[in-house]
Q: What sequence folds into this?
């Protein structure tokens, strides 16, 4: 899953840039230009030598999309993720960590997702238990798209006696 | 005569105002400029900080900022007063300026607010412009405080000891669990994806442009903790509400800026310190860096300011978590967790099924951590790792209990507790039949025998080091040793981690060879090998390298020799303050001067204080014996 995350992270960056070939994979992101880019272009990034080089400039992905006062591009506005994309973008970029934490019944990514979805902190325990219980179906939804994952979670919250009451939306 | 003419020309550019309004603008602007001159605002620290001016050698000014759009006067890069006058003039206009394309009042909002405060702008004569984009951006932070974030060096990559620093804008109501949702303020070079070998060279000489961005913290955590396996230290800063606002206003302005990125000085750490300097001009942080800026030093400096840091938080990398969890397990369980990553059949074995659920959960979580570690640190991860991770997580989800908190202790203490990066040493000793005294300066950074507190264990990066030695009997003073770059990384191998150890050295030393008693010798060597950690006495690392070496010296036939061989050694912590290292090498040189070398080295270091140590070292090379006692100070 990590590669997908990286693909997406790279895609956010370069998705808005002209001149970079996009891979043929369909866009399964939040639908604001979050396509996929072949990680192959960055082959060797995980090896030692390129890492040594990277360390000299701290060159990093995302500095364009998230550029301060850089105007509107794809999912961001002056470098901030647009409100309507916050949850799906988070779910999509952290899917790997989220699936692990759903199975483990706790974790900071899961708590952060719950917060983004309007679940108050004192109900996170129920939210964690619910995602652990529905782990298999949630992962299946998430593999289809982050939008489907967020929708499944919303449906599950709506059908949950405690969470439906407590959640902001 | 002149005034109406200027008014007329101005009218051509600015469409709305009538002649009467225009002449009032001009009059008020002139008044403001005079007042600013009277108060010498252009010379004040705030203005200098906002425009990033530095005094140059000739007493003039130059801004470190390199984007022409950051200045409103064509002379702005070198003239603080011309820039101030042009800025005041532009505040009267709604024209879009800068790379961010906003009215000057919004594009340079920190300058506007500072000048407004100093000159008490009359809102009827200089009407404020609403800055919707800034307001939205600012409110979206829901700022509560600022944290300074320091990702430590990654294991097995000493070059990353230079690290990186960034800020996190902590949100109101943020908890330990949700702080990954906060935005960062990050300064980084924009590097083309196929930069290859040009990367470090261009990085050093400033041919990349560095920009400011607000990358979500969860992406930075993913990069540092999960992919690069670097521990992260977070320093919560004590800033007042007003300081937070000044900090973010200036950050917004820097969206119009870029700086040529110089790896050594004007790097990430340097430019983000400028934000703190403007938030609280009393701090004087960037003034402390003249030669180069090392991220760990910026942390040391920030922590040294009384009351500035309120809280320090440690965020372990995934590899640290895995190591600590493995340490916490008895061997049988450690093996079971590891077998789980190789064969999912273990999940249904009786040995596993008999365990209590909390223990099962712990082993499953460890197995999943490891499978994700493998997947994310390998370029072409195997599909079965993902499938096994899925099986492990599915089993885990059926346990229906949350994982217990597992507190993780760092392997290296926080960076500000470590020794400073420059080192001087004075020493004396014997070489063969002579005695000597010597002095050493080292530009940076850390070698295997330096006090290890605050540094990545078993990693060395030495740069720009030179030793001058005087031989008493030979009555000769010479450059004894010099190092351009000496890197060494030991990564202990176990059943989970199997990265190679490696080393690289470029420099010179003084040899005794054939008829030449003291001959300069240029040296290039590199090696690859493995290391193993033991815990016999305290902590010991055994290592072995296969290596090649090329040397140039007039002592050799044909002026050179090239060959290879091997080294074995041990690095051992005897006590908290006492460390020893011993190595033995054999090298054979079939090319150039045909010869071979046996070498022995034994070194022992005792730490006196954070920035003081003493060493006793013995070097043997064929018939050449050298004993050195030295006192070392870090500064």
A:
């Amino acid at each position: 899953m990590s590669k997908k995350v990286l693909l997406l992270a790279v895609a956010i960056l370069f998705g808005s840039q002209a001149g970079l070939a996009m891979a043929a994979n369909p866009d399964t992101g939040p639908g604001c230009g979050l396509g996929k880019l072949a990680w192959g272009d960055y082959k060797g990034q995980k090896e030692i030598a390129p890492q040594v080089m990277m360390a000299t400039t701290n060159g990093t992905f995302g500095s364009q999309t998230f550029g301060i006062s850089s105007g509107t591009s794809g999912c961001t506005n002056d470098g901030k993720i647009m409100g309507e994309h916050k949850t799906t973008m988070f779910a999509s970029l952290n899917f790997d960590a989220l699936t692990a934490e759903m199975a483990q019944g706790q974790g900071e990514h899961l708590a952060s997702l719950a917060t983004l979805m309007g679940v108050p902190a004192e109900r996170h325990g129920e939210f964690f238990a619910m995602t652990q219980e529905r782990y298999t179906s949630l992962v299946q939804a998430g593999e289809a798209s982050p939008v489907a994952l967020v929708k499944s979670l919303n449906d599950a919250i709506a059908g949950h006696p405690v969470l439906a009451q407590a959640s902001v939306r | 005569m002149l005034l109406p003419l200027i008014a007329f020309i101005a009218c051509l550019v600015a469409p709305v105002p009538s002649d009467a309004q225009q002449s009032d603008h001009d009059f008020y602007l002139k008044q403001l400029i005079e007042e600013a001159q009277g108060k010498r605002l252009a010379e004040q620290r705030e203005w200098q900080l906002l425009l990033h001016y530095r005094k140059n050698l000739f007493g003039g000014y130059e801004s470190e900022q390199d984007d022409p759009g950051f200045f409103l006067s064509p002379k702005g890069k070198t003239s603080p007063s011309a820039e101030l006058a042009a800025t005041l003039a532009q505040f009267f206009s709604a024209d879009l300026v800068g790379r961010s394309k906003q009215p000057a009042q919004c594009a340079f909002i920190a300058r506007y607010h500072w000048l407004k405060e100093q000159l008490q702008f009359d809102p009827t004569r200089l009407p404020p412009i609403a800055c919707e984009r800034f307001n939205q951006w600012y409110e979206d932070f829901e700022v509560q405080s600022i944290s300074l974030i320091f990702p430590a060096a990654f294991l097995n990559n000493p070059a990353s000891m230079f690290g990186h620093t960034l800020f996190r804008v902590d949100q109101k109501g943020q908890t330990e669990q949700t702080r990954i949702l906060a935005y960062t303020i990050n300064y980084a070079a924009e590097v083309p994806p196929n930069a290859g070998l040009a990367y470090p060279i261009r990085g050093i000489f400033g041919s990349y442009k560095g920009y400011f961005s607000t990358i979500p913290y969860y992406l930075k955590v993913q990069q540092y903790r999960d992919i690069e396996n670097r521990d992260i230290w977070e320093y919560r800063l004590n800033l007042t509400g007003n300081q937070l606002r000044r900090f973010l206003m200036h950050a917004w302005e820097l969206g119009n800026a870029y700086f040529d990125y110089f790896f050594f000085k004007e790097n990430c750490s340097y430019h983000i310190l400028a934000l703190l300097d403007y938030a609280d001009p009393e701090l004087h942080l960037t003034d402390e860096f003249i030669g180069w800026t090392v991220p760990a030093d910026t942390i040391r400096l920030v922590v040294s300011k009384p009351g500035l840091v309120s809280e320090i938080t440690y965020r372990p990398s995934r590899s640290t978590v895995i190591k600590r969890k493995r340490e916490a397990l008895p061997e049988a369980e450690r093996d079971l967790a590891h077998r789980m990553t190789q064969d999912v059949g273990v999940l249904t074995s009786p040995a596993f099924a008999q365990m209590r659920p909390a223990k099962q959960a712990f082993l499953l979580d460890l197995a999943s951590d490891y499978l994700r570690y493998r997947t994310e640190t390998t370029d072409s991860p195997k599909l079965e790792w993902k499938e096994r991770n899925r099986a492990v997580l599915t089993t885990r989800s059926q346990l229906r209990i949350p994982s217990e908190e597992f507190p993780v202790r760092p392997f290296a203490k926080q960076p500000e507790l470590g020794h400073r990066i420059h080192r001087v040493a004075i020493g004396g000793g014997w070489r063969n039949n002579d005695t000597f005294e010597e002095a050493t300066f080292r530009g940076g950074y850390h070698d295997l025998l330096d006090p290890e507190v605050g540094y990545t264990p078993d990693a060395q990066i030495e740069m720009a080091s030179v030793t001058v030695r005087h031989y008493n009997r030979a009555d000769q003073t010479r450059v004894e040793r010099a190092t351009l770059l000496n890197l060494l990384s030991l990564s202990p191998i176990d059943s989970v981690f199997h990265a190679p150890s490696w080393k690289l050295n470029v420099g010179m030393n003084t040899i005794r060879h054939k008829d030449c008693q003291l001959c300069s010798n240029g040296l290039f060597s590199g090696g690859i090998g493995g290391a193993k950690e033991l815990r016999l006495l305290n902590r010991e690392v055994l290592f072995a390298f296969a290596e090649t070496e090329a040397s140039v010296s007039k002592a050799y036939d044909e002026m050179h020799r090239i060959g290879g061989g091997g080294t074995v050694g041990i690095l051992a912590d005897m006590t908290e303050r006492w460390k020893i290292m011993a190595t033995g090498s054999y090298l054979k040189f079939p090319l150039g001067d045909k010869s071979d070398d046996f070498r022995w080295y034994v070194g022992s270091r005792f730490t006196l204080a954070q920035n003081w140590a003493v060493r006793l070292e013995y070097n043997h090379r064929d018939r050449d014996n050298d004993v050195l006692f030295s006192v070392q100070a870090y500064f």
